[in-house]
Amino acid sequence: MYDVAIIGAGIIGSFISRELSKYDLKTVLLEKDNDVSNGTTKANSAIIHAGYDALFKTNKGKFNALGNPMFDKVCKELDVPFKRIGSYVVAYNEKEIKTLKELFKNGKKLGIPDMEIINGDELRKREPNLSDEIVAGLYAKTAGIVGPFELCIALCENAVENGVELLLNYEVNNIEKTKSGFKITSNEKSIEAKYVINCAGVYADEINNMVNKSKFKITPRRGQYYLLDKSANGLVNSVIFQCPNEMGKGVLVTPTVHGNILVGPNSEDIMDKEGTQTTSNSLKFVKESASKSIKNIPFNEVITTFSGLRAEPTGGDFIIEESDTEGFINVAGIKSPGLSASPAIAEHVVEIIKEINDGLKENKDFNPIRKEMVRFSELDDQKKAELIKKDERYGRIICRCENVTEGEIVDVINRLVGARTVDGVKRRTRPGMGRCQGGFCGPRVVEILARELGKSVEEIVKSNKESYIITEETKGDIDYDKKEKKLALS
Amino acid sequence: MLNYDIVVIGGGPAGLAAAIEAKKNGVKDILVIERDRELGGILQQCIHNGFGLHVFNEELTGPEYAEKFIDELKNQGIEYMLDTMVLDITEDRKISAINTENGLMNIHAKALILSMGCRERTRGAINIPGTRPAGVFSAGTAQRFINMEGYMVGKKVVILGSGDIGLIMARRMTLEGAKVEAVAELMPFSGGLTRNIVQCLDDYNIPLLLSHTIIEIKGKERVEGVVIAKVDENRKPIPGTEKHIECDTLLLSVGLIPENELSLKAGVNIDPRTNGPIVNESMETKVKGIFACGNVVHVHDLVDFVTKESKKAGKSASKYVLGELVEKEEIIKTNADEGIGYIVPQRIRMSNVDEKLELFMRVKDVYKNVKLVIKADGEVIKEFKRKHLAPGEMEIISLNSSLLEGKQVSNISVSVKGA
Amino acid sequence: MNKEVVCIVCPMGCHIKVKKDENLYLGYTVEGNKCKRGKEYGIKELTNPTRIITTTVKIKNSHLRRLPVKTNEPVAKDKIFECMKVINKVSIKAPIKVGDVVLENILDTGVDIVASRSM
């Protein structure tokens, strides 16, 4: 019997699990996929919003404002890339300047510090590639960028280190209220827990509806992005938003923590909760829309396109509360600015648990510090030399675009919450993230995964269970005739 | 700090030929740095034949071609490091490199030869929409898996791009038991050699769909199919021509890009038409003492021409080290005119040219029975008849230096003219 | 017997029509070729098309798991898959030198399978 079962190892579930690991609790984190950070967390704008945007007196407004200042500490403890680079919302006309003023006012109410409205010329002095059509901008100094999947993985690792149990490939099929709590069933086995926290992202409605009378619906709202090569670095040095409208914050252009440029997203409501395909129309829209705010975006330097799904709830605001079933807590509809709000949401959820449980005992052994990550390419020469001397595998570069060594790859496979898939390695230490997209390092990463995990190469997958890379060894028994491979002889 | 006369970065066909030629021209301390576990570069996975017709007058496979140079390199006693990655180079030719054995090395070279080759364009670079499942490979990655590692990457295959790598892989996958459903080509003509279309596609009844592209990739975890469509003359998909092809694998053979991230660190300037360094008649970049050759300069069609060009780079680097290269002189610029995509070299100093000035170029379209017109400062100095020109095939013209002797020429242009 | 082939002797890619004609010395008429070599190629493609096979065999005790090989002479085009079946069963041990025969006289064609690199 667990004290708490958290459903979903995205950024919210992971943050809550780490927050709960500060207390003397038996916590289990359930994830339907074979890795954490596999849904919305892996595909979003990666921005820590300053917080002026979400309305005062909403959960979004409250938790964004509270969450933003918390990132410095947690990212330091967990050795996760985070930079406060500031953001601008740009305006093209009087009507939009009015919107800027409203945002500014809203921000003031929420207590957002360091905001100012500046004119177009001043704006272009700071960001020379901004369009000449822009007449004003709202600057917010506290906006930042983070590695969202790195943060999520780090949170899980730290949570597990502090006693949380992580069950991967655990897709919840049914939840039953029992006398003492809940019985959760998957295809494999059932578990029992006193409290359940529903952080199932776009599936949070289905999880809620298994237990509660009061239903809600989550609509996947897809956003598509372009990722530009590091050679585009410097195009903008802060986050550039367009004026928000009813569908969201509009298309943005931002640097990433790793020095790429991210352009997107659009916004479209879809039916399929796995519908993360990109479409030519939407990508075209993103391209045209972004080109309005930024001059000369080098779209010939695109290294990949992707899309992510925001969990859009009925009602529009975050749902963070104990449901009508006692002990079952919903943390649902955590769309943007969910990432920015996540640390504050996690603290709040712990408060809810404290209240239901009549207090919680602290975990005296809690260690907030995660074992440091090795980032070989960022080390100075002396450190590089020392590292190779200690472990020669740091002397072998596997990914030449991002300069990732074999040592780093082996490390992320063998850590707690280690990588099990090619994408898992990629999200943890970046081979395949670069301009060749794994063309050179792909086969080597597969080989290293197989070796470290004691598996055959055929067993290594890209991401999910069926995403096999190799079909078979060559030189098998091939029936050429049966496969209708007649030569052209006529 | 390790010191060498010449350091060659990249042990593929370009680097091998350059190093050997430099040694033959009297330079002793040469080091070749290779990131892979063996020399030979991409040739080691190109197990098909067709290499060497110009250099050796026989048809060799890629590994055979490579082995001849590797043997020669070893016979010449040229030093090389395998499994070694260059992390940084500077304008004054300091190199920082690592490997497992020696750790971090700082190396200084009197002359540096860049021969890092190229990489394949990716799905992202050409923006194919759809899902992002496993089973989308660049043709070269698949080639490595199949030919060197011994693993098949799929059973039902569609190939986008009919350059030679795409064609060769269609045959390779077929011979290893896969069914290649089609090769789609965006352009109205194939970028590959006719011989490869015949022997790799026609022989096996594999359809070549010209003026077609892939507009969507389907499948959640592994590729389940692709949607192809016809394109119009502007290469835009024509609505209503979409067709779904069931497959588990998509191979991309959609172009190669010279790998110049290191070159940029040394301050070398890049020609946007070739994506490679701007070089002069000696294959020297803008940075004194830094030379470049092979696919890092421009993507070649035949390795034989890589060898030819790299020998020139190796010889020039040795001259530079020995103080024999003429540095100061009027520079002639080459200019890709009507119908010509690019010309290498982009700069010429006549004093360093022997009897013949060789210009490597590619045309922009398919032409039959035309002339290549060479002009010096606007005046025609030579014409070459050509029965057949295609963007997939590199064109080389050889000019007698005497044509330019005694003239104060500042510009040489090449254009295609109907006969 | 008629056949249309694309000539691969040079990059021109002539479309050649080959027709059987008993009355002629060569036995065939060839149209569409622009040179003599094209004529020879056309007749060969009609009468006895052959190809070099390049592929791999399993290898043990080496840093790679496959050794590239080729036929030392062209084999009849219609024997390619039959040859592949035989080649696929070959497994050899390193070390091996380029040019070494890994399989002699495949399918009694008189053609050998040889290593195309040392390993």
Number of DSSP strand runs of chain A? 23
Q: Quick one: how many beta strands of chain C? A: 10
For the residues shown, what is the average pLDDT of chain A?
Answer: 95
The secondary-structure element order of chain C is EEEHEEEEHEEE
Q: What's the end-to-end separation of chain A, in Å?
A: 72 Å
Report the sheet-strand fraction of chain C: 25-35%
What does the model show?
The complex is a heterotrimer of chains A (490), B (419) and C (119). Chain A has helices at residues 11-20, 59-67, 71-78, 94-110, 120-126, 148-161, 204-209, 280-293, 338-356, 381-390, 406-414, 422-429, 442-453, and strands at 2-7, 27-30, 47-48, 82-84, 87-91, 115-119, 136-140, 144-146, 165-167, 174-177, 182-185, 190-198, 218-228, 239-242, 252-255, 261-264, 268-269, 302-313, 319-322, 328-332, 397-399, 404-405, 472-473. Chain A is of the alpha+beta class. Chain A has two domains: 2-356, FAD/NAD(P)-binding domain; 376-459, Orthogonal Bundle (Arc Repressor Mutant, subunit A). In chain A, a hairpin with a 4-residue loop joins strand 21 (397-399) and strand 22 (404-405). The longest helix of chain A is centred in the last third of the chain and has 19 residues, at 338-356. The N and C termini of chain A lie far apart (72 Å). Chain B folds into three domains: 1-120 and 256-325, FAD/NAD(P)-binding domain (3-Layer(bba) Sandwich), CATH 3.50.50; 122-254, FAD/NAD(P)-binding domain, CATH 3.50.50.60; 330-419, Sandwich (Immunoglobulin-like). The radius of gyration of chain B is 22 Å and the shape is globular. By secondary structure, chain C is of the alpha+beta class. Chain C has two domains: 2-47, no CATH class; 54-115, CPE0013-like (CPE0013-like fold). The longest helix of chain C is centred in the middle third of the chain and has 12 residues, at 36-47. The termini of chain C are far apart. At the A-B interface, strand 18, helix 10, helix 13 and strand 23 of A face strand 7, strand 8, helix 3, helix 4 and strand 11 of B. Strand 23 (472-473) of chain A pairs antiparallel with strand 11 (151-152) of chain B, so a sheet runs across the interface.
Q: What are its keywords?
A:
B: alpha/beta, FAD/NAD(P)-binding domain, Immunoglobulin-like, 3 domains, 7-stranded mixed sheet, 8 helices, 20% helix, globular, C: alpha+beta, CPE0013-like fold, 5-stranded mixed sheet, 3-stranded antiparallel sheet, 18% helix
